[in-house]
Specification:
Strand content: 15-25%
CATH class of the largest domain: Alpha Beta
CATH topology of the largest domain: Rossmann fold
Number of domains: 3
Helix content: 25-40%
CATH superfamily of the largest domain: P-loop containing nucleotide triphosphate hydrolases
Shape: globular
Radius of gyration: 33 Å
Length: 561
């Protein structure tokens, strides 16, 4: 069974959120953007909820409208979960039959089966407590007359597993660990083999005790207990150096991993990254051995504690985990390995938390290739940004970060990423940013190259005003910097023979335009780095009015003002 849609209302920081889900769905977004809330909402409704269990929600799960609100006055929590066939006939006949007997299955006009569960919780002023309810719904959203056994049937058909970001291997590989304990308890040994092993364990234990003579003194003294406390007849005191029963021996089983020197060390004593990977592998083994119903697997930050190169290799491990997967991540390296159509970006907007995705078919094959090469593979972190500043070339990529630092603006704090578009496709970048709900602002030279880039920008304004998406502040970056006091930085980089080709006289109109035109490409890139250093040295007085206006604009777009 595939979980196809989730709708959350009034749960924690989420007022209203609808989410379409794939076989693998990757959730990204800033802290407190709702990623954990989504995984927890599913846990509460698919695993913890029960016909006879108490309320699974607590007071902190209610969405509070403002600082003075409290859960008793909050709007009801409502979580609606939809399971759907991808194509007609996906679900096996016995499964369809079980749900039909419970009268909860709905068949849409396209022939696909759907099942919808809605869970609600609200404060009851009469009982002064919280009331919880659940219903299966028809296609119009009306409750169906389903008995309490219908929920049990659903929970037998699917199993929800949640692996949180804090993965302490010592806890997960403990005898009480939820994924390790089944391996310890599940003994497939024939009874005669079990008897044989336990006899050998007894023989080994006797050998250890007989070889360790100091044990004899302890046993003799402890036998004196019988003089005060009645004990069993026969041998009252025995020492167990080696567990004598299979159950006891398995309960003490530990996983050891070899170090680089070959020494075998318990997994809980290895580094955090190794522990995290070990827990993921244990989790995968558990799902393979004890799948229960169709597994829905929630993984929170699987990249935790891993080196970037290991993170990129991690996707191969995650893809082997069976079942439908929901993965939350903060890693651009992991994102670089994932099909971008599986990504859902959660962002705080004026309307609350919203979900954004790249719709299938939005990009042409060529645009998809460019995006994979220029963004997904090398700059996956761009999708985590609050705002993109699109700039034409290397000069702007040097100058804008320095102008921000000189102005006391921390671009990282505001979640602003600078993206160079001359080697990519500015229209493609704008299109992707729009799809993922990322505000963008494009700085474009007002020169002959404008005709090349401007159509792609204008075609992707969407509902935004042109003034909020594009600016043409100067003929080009070098001319702008030369005419605003940075000529002393570029002058030493101009070759004598190139300077001789400048026909105009310094101080006359057009001189700096001609000077910039004769600057070699290498001088422009070296000059950009030198200007960046000089601008930071000068501070805010070295930032031109045009650059300052652009910085203020992107800070505003990022939600900074």
């Amino acid at each position: 069974m595939k979980l196809s849609k989730l709708k959350i209302q009034n749960f924690r920081g989420i007022k209203t959120l609808e989410l379409d889900l794939d076989s693998t769905t990757v959730l990204i977004g800033e802290n407190n953007s709702g990623k954990t809330a989504i995984l927890d909402a599913l846990r509460l409704c698919l695993r913890d909820l029960g016909p006879r269990r108490g309320v699974v929600f607590d007071t902190f799960d209610f969405h509070l409208k403002d600082a003075s609100a409290d859960p008793s006055s909050a709007d009801p929590i409502q979580i609606t979960i939809t399971f759907s066939e991808d194509e007609e006939g996906d679900w096996e006949a016995p499964l369809v039959g079980r749900f039909n007997r419970q009268r909860v299955l709905q068949v849409h006009a396209d022939g696909r089966n759907h099942l919808v569960l809605r869970v609600t919780c609200a404060y009851n002023p009469t009982t002064r407590d919280f009331d919880q309810d659940w219903k299966f719904l028809d296609q119009a959203g009306h409750p169906l007359m389903a008995g309490p056994e219908a929920l049990g049937t659903l929970q037998r058909e699917i199993s929800y597993y949640y692996l949180a970001a804090l993965r302490d291997a010592a806890r997960h590989f403990d005898a009480k660990g939820p994924f390790w304990r089944p391996f310890l308890k599940d003994s497939q040994l024939p009874e005669e083999k079990k008897v044989e092993i336990e006899q050998k364990l007894k023989d080994l234990n006797d050998l250890v005790i007989d070889s360790h003579t100091s044990f004899e003194q302890a046993r003799d003294r402890l036998n004196n207990l019988q003089q005060i406390v009645p004990m069993a007849s026969g041998e009252a005191v025995s020492i167990e150096a080696v567990p004598g029963r299979m159950f006891d021996m398995l309960a003490k089983a530990q996983i050891h991993l070899s170090t680089s020197t070959g020494a075998k060390v318990p997994v809980g004593r290895h580094g955090e990254g190794t522990q995290s990977l070990a827990v993921l592998m244990l989790f995968s083994a558990f799902l393979e051995a004890w799948p229960g119903g169709a597994p829905i697997v929630a993984l929170e930050e699987p990249e935790a504690h891993l080196h970037p190169s290991a993170i990129r290799a991690l996707w191969g491990i995650l893809s082997m985990i069976s079942g439908q997967k929901l993965i939350s991540t903060h890693s651009g390296d992991l994102l670089s390995e994932i099909d971008i159509h599986n990504v859902r970006r959660l962002a705080k907007t004026q309307a609350g938390i919203e979900s954004f995705r790249l719709p299938p078919g939005l990009l042409s094959d060529e645009e998809q290739r460019k995006f994979n090469y220029h963004v997904r593979r090398v700059r996956g972190e761009l999708l985590f940004a609050r705002c993109w500043l699109l700039v034409e070339g290397e000069t702007e990529s040097w100058v804008f970060p320095s102008a921000a630092r000189a102005s006391g603006i921390d671009l990282h704090r505001y979640g602003i990423e600078i993206v160079e578009y001359s080697q990519s496709d500015v229209g493609l970048l704008a299109k992707v940013a729009n799809a993922f709900g990322i505000p963008w602002y494009c700085v474009m030279d007002d020169d002959s190259g404008r005709a090349k880039y401007e159509p792609g920008v204008m075609a992707n304004l969407g509902s935004a005003l042109e003034a909020d998406r594009v600016t043409f502040p100067y003929p080009n970056a070098e001319i702008h910097l030369l005419t605003h006091g940075y000529d002393t930085v570029y002058a030493p980089l101009m070759p004598t023979q190139n300077l001789a080709r400048v026909t105009k006289v310094i101080g006359t109109p057009g001189y700096w335009e001609e000077f910039a035109c004769n600057l070699p490409s290498k001088a422009k890139t070296r000059g950009a780095a030198a200007v960046a250093s000089e601008m930071e040295r000068r501070g805010v007085t070295g930032v031109t009015a045009e650059l300052a206006a652009i910085l203020n604009k992107i800070v505003a777009l990022a939600g900074g003002v």
